[in-house]
Amino acid sequence: MRKMTFAAATLLALGLTGCSSEPDFMEVGSLTKPDAFGMGTYLNYVTIRSLTEELEIQDLTVNRGNCRILKYSGRSQLPKTISYGETTKIQVNNDCDILEVDIETDQGAGTYSFGS
Fold it and tell me: What 8-state DSSP symbol labels residue 72?
């Protein structure tokens, strides 16, 4: 009986660990700042900080695909690799109010929510 209780407790602990949608190998935030050209518009970014030696950001979905990730000179911002403590900014379209971000990396995936 004691072995069975221990096995059940172990499985429960493993299951609860897997329920977290915010992994501990990165920190994610959102940033809005005025356009540098003073056009009265704002630039929106998803910020990602690596908490592991090396993190490859492979894909990013903002607001369940309703916001576009901008391209620079026709080139995608992803994939992108950052080192421990380094932060990157991924720009999304200006009319996007960032509420939810799904991120896929080489370390795993996570979903982050912002606002209420």
Answer: B
Distances (CA, A) of 28 to 8, 20, 75, 89: 34, 14, 23, 10
Does residue 64 come out as left (phi exceeding 0), alpha (psi in the -120 to 50 range) or beta? Answer: left
Q: What residues does 101 pair with on adjacent strands?
A: 62, 112
pLDDT tens digit sequence for 10-63: 333 333 333 346 779 999 999 999 988 877 889 999 999 999 999 999 999 999
Per-residue DSSP letter, 25: T
Helix-then-strand count for the chain, H and E:
1, 7
The pLDDT value recorded for residue 21 is 62
Predicted structure pTM score: 0.78
